[in-house]
Every structure is written in structure tokens, then in C-alpha cells.
Protein: Malto-oligosyltrehalose trehalohydrolase
Amino acid sequence: MRLDVDGALYEMRAEPGGWWRAEVDARADARYGFVLDDDPTVLPDPRSPRQPDGVHARSQLWQPDPATWTDHDWPGRSIEGAVIYELHVGTFTPEGTFDAVIDKLDHLVDLGVDFVELMPVNAFGGTHGWGYDGVLWYAVHEPYGGPDALVRLINACHRRGLGVLIDAVFNHLGPSGNYLPRFGPYLSTGSNPWGESINLSDPGSDEVRRYILDCALRWMREFHADGLRLDAVHALVDTTAIHILEELSAETDALSAELGRPLSLIAESDLNDPRLITPREHGGLGMTAQWDDDIHHAIHAAVSGERQGYYADFGSMAALAQTLQNGYYHAGTYSSFRRRRHGRPLDKSLIPATRLLAYTLTHDQVGNRAVGDRPSQNLTVGQLAVKAALALMSPYTAMLFMGEEWGSSSPFQFFSSHPEPELARATAEGRKREFAEHGWDAGEIPDPQDPQTFLRSKLDWDEVGEGDHARLHRLYRDLIALRHAEPDLADPWLTNLRIDFDERRRWIVMHRGALAIACNLAADPVEVPVSGEPVLAWDDPQSSADGTRLPGHSFAILRV
Structure:
């Protein structure tokens, strides 16, 4: 193996464990790479700190200048019970950069959210994409502004009291620029829906695991992130006695103690396995929290009436009540979508509700629809308001997806910009084929490689102050403010939650201490047997000693 530094080649010496070493004087911003065997191609560093010319080019040395950090007094904050705002840097603003996100942070502060969660910002092929096909996990995507701009964004967030979470993908590598297999046994013999699996427990896996752990810790140590969202952890196949998530949890806790501020790990998993969020001392993996798709499915199917695919078991008021009460709907019960039993019951005396995330929208739940349509494109504004009340007034940690707070009319479609013609064609054809098998007209499926697919997905910020968009935005702001202000809404224990509902008339009431959140999911008015002092409402409910009359698609929060 040889080291290329600014075009000059240096021999490297082999060391134990498969490592190679060379010590060379170089400029602070030198471009470098590695030449393997007899292939003259200069490959980027697997731990590249910067890729200014893309994932196929030489790497560049980079370290954050300590003088650029202005968040020395940032105390940090835990995500438990917080409100998280998920955004995609490339479509959040017209410019699609970290610096442009800074210009919108005051909107998020006014909204009342506590954290910004950035969809993947690691280096990936092409100029734009969702980011889940990253190949150089240590580097920051240059079209967003590169590492220096990410430092500016995190400084700006912390200055405004906003925490920052970074979406990290360790379950597979993207197809463009993946040179890791040339350097070592990074891949296993298995596979998952997105490609070959990462080697977590096969021969040679010790250094692969260290590669992942060091990358995860780097976002929190060097970039001052307050935690990570870990993509699809059910696809991490680890047969060792100490699962890599348990190892990461322990090392994150150690780093938190060293830095003197909270650090959080949020796992995305479809297993409904509470061991994921059970503390390590109780035999769990020690994740801070996890995404809970059951809550999304229960709310969305009940409000929208959709029943296709994985919504098949949801939609009833009973399913909605059961899910809100227990955290999981499938908890050792039969799933018709999977055609088998699924999940495991949550120990509600051990695990607080704040370890589960409630949401009515995510990048997945929009972007993985055939045409990337949002609920706002199919539901009434009243239905959107009811969904917001159910999620934000629940005892779970809450999350919004960018633009949800004003009912954005922009779709969020699946887009990519692979520079390789064969890969671009395969991506487009695969997308059409996948949805055509589920009954969609292939001609309706947006081409991921068409630049217009990306441009259509950008938020239209002019909508925020218009008509129903402005009204919904005010509601989200009021709901979040109420969530922060009311002590009864901070109670994280599901054992203290009581839910009443009527299946036929389609109303549901969440009782949280002295507050009752009464929602009418039907189009016609209903009389709900709960009354009290109105705190916050959508439309004009009428409360009396005998109950509360709710207009169609509306809610009322009452102090009883």
C-alpha cells in the first residue's frame, strides 16, 4: 500500500492487525489518498474528514478550529419529553445549505421545538439525495457547505437553545463511491433491503465495529452534536455477546460524563422490542429512545381512513386507544401485514413513555409513498389539527417533519443524483417497478434522477403566513407551548394515562391529570361526555355541564 499526498507517493509499512502506517510532513489542508496493490487509482481515506471534490476523489485533511466554537456555555439537554424537528438540509430552504438553515432557526425557536434533527449529512455520491446512501461516513456532504458550515449551524442552534441530532446510517453503504471493501472485511456475507450487510460479528469484525463506534462518537465530540438518530438498527446483524448498540450506549454515556452534557441515542427499529430502550443495568441495550411507527400508524389510519399495506391492522378507535395507552400496538400479537406474531409488551413500570417518539409525519412516511404526497395534500385542515393534538398532547417524546407545522403543500419525494448512468437508470427503474407491483401506474412514479423531483420537494416558505397554513401554524405553536407549560403533560408514565373512546361515533379522549384532550375524528359533530374549562381548541366546541359538543374534525383541550 502507498500513500499519495498532493501527488507524491510514499511507501507504507505493514503493522500487526492489518494496519499500514506512513508518517509524512503535509500541509494542514493537504489532499491525500491511498494506492492499493497494482491499481494506480488513488482512493479516498475510509476515515476521510473532508471530501471537497466528491466521494471518488482524494481526501483532505480537516480539523475544526477550536476558536470557531462559540457554544462553550451550552449545557446540553436530554431528548426525553422534548419536541424534535426533523429536516432535510437540501430541501428545507431554496438554497439547500447549512447556512440557509441558520436563516430559518428563529422560525423553529418561535415554534417552540427543542431539537433539530438533521437527515444524514455524511458524504454521498452526487449533489443531492436523501443521504442514506452514504459511503464516507466521517466526512460532511460538501454541497451542504462541508464541515465548516456544519460547525456554524450547530453553533447557531446552541446559541438559540436548540439541541442538534444527526441521523447516522451504519447498516449499509451506498452504491456510488463505496471503496471500503478494498481496505478490509467491512461487509458480511448477509444482506438487507438496501445492500450488503456490515460485518459486525464475522472474522475481522473488531476493527469494523471500532470504525462505526469512532464515527458515531466523532459527531458528538468533534461536531458538538447532542445525539444521534440511528437508522434501521434492526438491520444491524450482530451475533456477539455484547451488541454493538449496547457498546455504543456505554461509550456514549462515558463521553457524556467527559463532556459534562447529556447525549442521546434514538434508534429507528420496527421490531417493537422494548429491550432496545431498556437500561443496560436491566439487561437492555440502553438506547435513550426509539421511533415508534405504531403510534404513527394508529393516528394516521384512524384519521385518514387509509388501510393499505401496514395500515391494515390499524384504523379503529380501539387500535388508536390501545396504542396510545401501551406504546406498541403489536406486542406479541398477530400482524396481518407480516403474517406472524410481532413485538413484545412494554414494561410500563420500568420504561417511561418519553423513550418512545410519537409523530404523524416523518421523511419515511411521506417519501416512501409512491408520489411522496403529504397528509396535507389529502386531508382537511381539521384532520391535520386532530393529528397534531393526538401526538403533541400524548406523553411520548414528540417529533415533527419539516413543513408539517403549516401543512406544507410540497411533496417530499424520493430523489437521487447518481453520476453513473447505469446506477441512475437502475434506481429509476427499480422505483417504478416496486410501486407498479403494488398497483400504481408506473407513469405516475416520479423519476428519482429527474432534477424536478428534487426541486418539487423543497418547502415553499411563502405559505407560512397564508390562510389555513397560518392558522395551522398558530395551532402547532400553541400546542407546543401548552405541552411545555402544563405539568400534567410532563408526566411520562403510561400508568397514569386514561383513554375513553366511542368506536361508532369516532371520538376519543386522553385524560392527562386535570386535562382532557377530546378529539372528534368524524366529519359530523359529536357530543363527548366530558366537560370543563376550555384551554385550547380547534373550531368552536361548546362545553356544558353534560359534555362537550365537538364540530367535525376538531378537538378541545379541557381543564376538568
